[in-house]
C-alpha cells in the first residue's frame, strides 16, 4: 500500500466542492476547468505528482490508466491496493450504507480510516 499517495489524494479530495464530485463517473470536462467533475480516481488524474509517476487518463476510453491497466485496476496498482479494497474505496458500492451518493469528503474520510487500520 502506498500510504503517501493515498493521503495526498485524501488531502486533495478535502478541497473538492460537492458539485464537482460524482462517484458515478470517472470524469467529465477538462482538469482545472471550473466545470470539471470527477470521482476520486478522476481527481487523482489531476494531481501533477501522480502524473509524473505515470497515473493518467485515457481520454478515448474515459478511464484512468497506470502501468498498462485501466479503471479500478489502474487505481489499485497505483495506490498499492488489492482490487477488492480499491473497488470498495473508489466505487459507489463502497458507500451504500450512506443511502446517498458519496461526496469527496466521504471518500477522503474512508481513505484515512483505511490507513489507520492498515498501518
**How many distinct folded domains?**
1
Low-confidence stretches: none
Strand composition percent? 5-15%
Largest sheet, in brief, is: 3 strands, antiparallel
Distance between the termini: 9 Å
Give the helix/strand class.
mainly alpha
Q: Which shape, going by the Cα principal axes? A: globular
Mean residue pLDDT: 93
Order of helices and strands: HEEHHEEEHHH
State the helix count: 6
Written overview of the protein:
- The chain has helices at 3-13, 40-44, 48-52, 71-79, 83-90, 104-118; strands at residues 27-28, 37-38, 56-58, 63-66, 69-70.
- The chain has one domain.
- It has a three-stranded antiparallel beta sheet. Strands 1-2 form a two-stranded antiparallel sheet.
- The protein is built from six helices and five strands; from the N terminus they run H-E-E-H-H-E-E-E-H-H-H.
- Strand 4 and strand 5 (69-70) form a beta hairpin.
- 32% of the residues are buried.
- The chain is mainly alpha-helical and 119 residues long.
- The longest helix has 15 residues, at 104-118.
Overview in brief:
With 119 residues, this protein is mainly alpha-helical. The protein is built from six helices and five strands, in the order αββααβββααα.
What topology emerges from the helices and strands here?
Layout: H1 3-13, E1 27-28, E2 37-38, H2 40-44, H3 48-52, E3 56-58, E4 63-66, E5 69-70, H4 71-79, H5 83-90, H6 104-118
Antiparallel strand pairs: 1-2, 3-4, 4-5
Helix pairs in contact: 1-6, 4-5
Amino acid at each position: 500500500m502506498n500510504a503517501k499517495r493515498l493521503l495526498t489524494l485524501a488531502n486533495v479530495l478535502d478541497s473538492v466542492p460537492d458539485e464537482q464530485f460524482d462517484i458515478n463517473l470517472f470524469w467529465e470536462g477538462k482538469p482545472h476547468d471550473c466545470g470539471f467533475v470527477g470521482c476520486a480516481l478522476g481527481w487523482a488524474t489531476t494531481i501533477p505528482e501522480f502524473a509524473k509517476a505515470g497515473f493518467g487518463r485515457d481520454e478515448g476510453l474515459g478511464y484512468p490508466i497506470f502501468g498498462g491497466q485501466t479503471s479500478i485496476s489502474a487505481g489499485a496498482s497505483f495506490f498499492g491496493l488489492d482490487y477488492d479494497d480499491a473497488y470498495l474505496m473508489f466505487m459507489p458500492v463502497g458507500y451504500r450504507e450512506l443511502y446517498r451518493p458519496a461526496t469527496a469528503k466521504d471518500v477522503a474520510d474512508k481513505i484515512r480510516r483505511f490507513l489507520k487500520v492498515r498501518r
